[in-house]
Specification:
Blueprint (H helix, E strand, L loop, with lengths): L1 H5 L4 E4 L2 H8 L2 H6 L6 E5 L4 E6 L3 H7 L6 E5 L7 H12 L6 E4 L23 E4 L1 H8 L4 H24 L6 H20 L13 E7 L20 E10 L2 E2 L5 E4 L4 H20 L6 H14 L4 H4 L5 E3 L6 E5 L12 E4 L2 E4 L3 E4 L2 E6 L2 E4 L11 E2 L3
Parallel strand pairs: 1-5, 3-4, 5-6, 10-18
Antiparallel strand pairs: 1-2, 2-3, 7-8, 8-9, 8-10, 11-12, 13-16, 14-15, 16-17
């Protein structure tokens, strides 16, 4: 409420599912909010009105969103005018038809086959003010509870990655190994946490791990394929888990069989760059300085960073897979206690291989804590099964 008043607006209208979840604790909106519109009207007086499709009312009531004064349903979307009529009625009831209202998006969700006008057409006298950062700024530093959820997720992510490394062997495909590790980790996680566990994520697995191998590791991103692992492969992995809607992100560079001198060289450069970035993560240090710490290692090793470095050094984690802060050149935002972000400097040698570790970092009073405690040294990440 105080932030709304300081922003000199009378209310805040949110349509982003994760922002609504952050303010109401209602996970179901986060899961299905991009198929049909959800909205939250949060007034400067503190009242919260949740607008949602009739089809989701029972589930949302079961989730018991906190602080919500009224739930107002509308009948189906798209193809009917009900969502707009409902929105206008809620604004009218809250005496907002001619007020200043913060907004995080001017349109309803982007649904295939639907072309909707901006909501300003239906509320022409409302002065809409772009205000998504009002909530996003609150999310940059995590509460103790949020951090515990991320650390719990990291435990299960590490388990999934352990299975991934254990199951990886020559002659077995990326898809088969990744599916097996994901299933095994999720099974153990669910048995351990019991029936009260809710992932608050729309997926059948709660912990997952996957990888790509060979020359495809030279692509920073890539889909899994049915290629079989071969001796001599570089392997780029990823693992994560979700607890209470919050996730971590873990990545490692591994090797199938004894790594070559060339693989050892680039692995060593990458690891030194990540260590330099990790060592620089302290309260008050600028995001750009963390980025520079990693890039300076690459430059010092004689690499052409304009060719081999293809992305930032890190990004925030939380409810979304990519949040502020961004660890990149030009971002002079200082690190603060409670920030959670990845440190993942990578180098990509075209036509050969890529080398990247990724760890989820929590800024503490005297430095940082690595939530992803999986080994990072080359010996631990070398698979010698035949």
């Amino acid at each position: 409420m105080e932030k709304i008043r300081k922003a000199q607006i009378d209310a805040l209208y949110l349509s982003n599912p994760n922002r609504i979840f952050y303010l109401t604790g209602c996970p179901y909106i986060m899961l299905v909010g991009m198929a049909r519109p959800f909205g939250l009207v949060f007034t400067a007086e503190g009242s919260k009105t949740l607008i949602l499709p009739t089809i989701e009312v029972q589930q949302v009531l079961k989730d018991q969103p906190f602080g919500v004064d009224e739930i107002v349903p509308y009948w189906e979307y798209p193809g009917t005018p009900h969502v707009y009529e409902t929105l206008v009625n809620v604004f009218r009831k809250n005496r907002l038809l001619d007020k200043r209202v913060g907004i995080d998006s001017s349109v309803l969700p982007d649904v295939v086959g639907v072309t909707d006008p901006p909501i300003q057409k239906y509320l022409p006298d409302v002065k809409f003010v772009p205000s998504k950062m009002l909530i996003d700024e609150m999310r940059v530093t995590k509460s103790a509870e949020e951090i515990e959820l991320i650390k719990e997720a990291a435990k299960w992510s590490n388990l999934a990655h352990t299975y991934l490394q254990e199951f990886t062997r020559p002659g077995v495909s990326e898809l088969e190994i990744s599916s097996k590790a994901t299933h095994q980790a999720t099974t153990v996680m669910l048995k351990t946490l019991g029936p009260d566990y809710v992932s608050k994520a729309l997926r059948w697995y709660s912990a997952w791990a996957r990888f790509k191998a060979g020359v495809r590791t030279s692509f920073p991103h890539g889909l899994l394929v049915n290629r079989k692992v071969q001796i001599g492969d570089s392997i780029e992995t990823a693992a994560s888990a979700t607890v209470g809607g919050y996730s971590n992100h873990l990545e490692r560079t591994m090797f199938m069989g004894e790594p070559s001198e060339k693989q050892k060289k680039y692995f060593g450069i990458m690891l030194r760059a990540q260590n330099a970035a990790l060592e620089s993560c302290k309260p008050g240090v600028k995001c750009s300085e963390v980025y520079k710490a990693a890039i300076d290692v690459f430059k010092g090793a004689g690499l052409d960073v304009d060719r081999v470095v293809q992305h930032r050094v890190g990004h925030g984690m939380g409810l979304d897979e990519c949040e502020p802060p961004t660890i990149v050149n030009g971002n002079d935002e200082p690190l603060k206690v409670g920030m959670v972000f990845t440190i993942e400097p990578g180098i990509y040698i075209d036509g050969y291989a890529g080398f990247r570790h990724c760890d989820t970092i929590i800024v503490t009073e005297d430095g940082c804590e690595n939530a992803d405690y999986y080994p990072r040294d080359i010996e631990s990440l070398t698979i010698r099964k035949t």
